[in-house]
Fold:
Amino acid sequence: MGGDEALGPHRVVVAGGVPGIGALYQDALRTAFTAELMPPLRALRPTPPRGGTDAAVLGAAALTRTLPLHDPHTTGVPR
Structure:
């Protein structure tokens, strides 16, 4: 890719239980994935997340460290 792209993906993550299904499914996924990509992106391959099957839960939990779950004054509990 050159220097003027609006999109420069380098990793595509397929999460949940999908990576654990096995080689038959993963091979079919890679084949279908590659067939649908634009030519400059065809070298990309779906990969499992580094956090394993719990990656989505870990991400949601980490999000609560930076974003509040609710406004502090909407719980109805007196301060």
